[in-house]
């Protein structure tokens, strides 16, 4: 993002986590409340990034392992004659999907709880910041009108 | 509940002949035809959008009014012109079918490739400033509220209103539709607010406004509140308290029950089906002020419809669901998934037969609707037996036209309330026409 910009910038989705990273703008006159908000958002972003990058990598890895073991059981190679990667059809993959989902259920429950908590906190902070800014602007307006 | 949509020629799939036929047969149904076409186009557009993005890798199906439609097919290779990069604006096609259609998370899944190809459109590769452009706001809010889904939800509510055996009151109708629409916008916005990281990870939903940072969560919540509160107030004060209560309950059910439950238990599908069933009930109560058997029957029809619709759709999305941590029948209990879909297809036949018993329609309704109900049941059976992609797709697409057609037939077979009062058939001979007569 350009140096002179006064707003946050959001980027393309991360390769592993599919989440879009945000670069937060730190205004010179940032209030403590605004700093709390920004730090909460940064922390949330880091948590989410960690979780999903790890989770997705695990998914891809386990998927590869599953395919490999199934192909081996069938007596096939990972790549066929034409050099194309051999794949399993949807019905065979279904077992893997079911398994993966149940294995990660607890992890998801924990993440869900954390995500909801973080989401509410951040949104609430945003509300507070917006309110403070609005009041400040109204006061400024009144002062100017008075002058 | 007929909406006129402009038939835009977007150069996509051909309209199946049956729609053209329908159009010819009843030109006063032209509006409905366009409505069907719109439905289909909406799905196809999403398809195409999905495909073009697949250069990147809907949904919900709108079986449930509040659900999104998911996109389906990824096998077709369609070349689309690259859309000019505009900072924020994205074409509308979100998969959202009205509440009627369940959200179908469209996942363009490639069953055949081990590593999903993710060609990202140019839009996605750039860093964007997170500043709200006012000019883009309408588009953003439309996508946030899943406007197409909302439109479909409102049409199911209108269908409920139209089927109620009372004189047609235009004001009431408009108020009820508007209130329902606002409630639906609110619910959809909150749903998106709750699901940002999950939406990011699923192909169908990864271009939503909150995921892309086009709007802040705070604004999304404020928008939801500014739709929901007036919407429910409108329903409670402008229509009747029962409708308002149903609307509020449905918002709660969708946002606080269905949305979290999606990640906890497969029972979410049943909850979602109820969410989808409530709007027509709301339409009915808006017209009559009470919860009669007719309302429940309409709700029942929509409830049953959700299952073949959603289960068929979710069949292709198993990978995304599994990775995203969504507990869906198609992933964890595939046999149940197909059984339930079939069961409810058959239930539709039963429910259609009950309609005349309850004096909602004439006996022509079960007769006329039997072919389409049998057809969807047949596809349901094929899905049950074959359990493959093509049968699931066929069932899904059938459900898309099945519901509008069923409601349409129901409307034409509606028992005029005058007929009921004068048993001696004042209006005899006119089986198929519904007569709405305004009493002085």
From TrEMBL, chain A:
UniProt entry keywords in alphabetical sequence: Membrane, Mitochondrion, Mitochondrion inner membrane, Transit peptide
Gene Ontology biological process: intrinsic apoptotic signaling pathway
Predominant subcellular localization, coarse grouping: mitochondrion
Compartment(s) of residence: Mitochondrion inner membrane
A GO CC term assigned to this protein in UniProt: mitochondrial inner membrane
Membrane topology: Peripheral membrane protein
Tagged with keyword ATP-binding: no
Protein family per UniProt: Belongs to the COA8 family.
Protein name in UniProt: APOP1 protein
Biological classification of the source: Eukaryota, Metazoa, Chordata, Craniata, Vertebrata
From TrEMBL, chain B:
Protein topology in the membrane: Multi-pass membrane protein
Statement: the UniProt record of this protein carries the keyword Nucleotide-binding: no
Family matches, as InterPro entries: Protohaem_IX_farnesylTrfase, Protohaem_IX_farnesylTrfase_mt, UbiA_prenyltransferase, UbiA_prenylTrfase_CS, UbiA_sf
Localization of this protein: Mitochondrion membrane
Example GO biological process: heme A biosynthetic process
One GO CC annotation: mitochondrial membrane
Matching PROSITE patterns: UBIA
Any one GO molecular-function label of the UniProt entry: protoheme IX farnesyltransferase activity
The EC number(s) this enzyme carries: 2.5.1.141
The UniProt record lists the keyword Transferase: yes
Regions that span the bilayer: 242-259, 266-287, 363-383, 395-412
Pfam families: UbiA (PF01040)
Top-tier EC class: transferase
Swiss-Prot/TrEMBL keywords: Heme biosynthesis, Membrane, Mitochondrion, Transferase, Transit peptide, Transmembrane, Transmembrane helix
PANTHER family named in the record: PROTOHEME IX FARNESYLTRANSFERASE, MITOCHONDRIAL
Record's protein name: Protoheme IX farnesyltransferase, mitochondrial
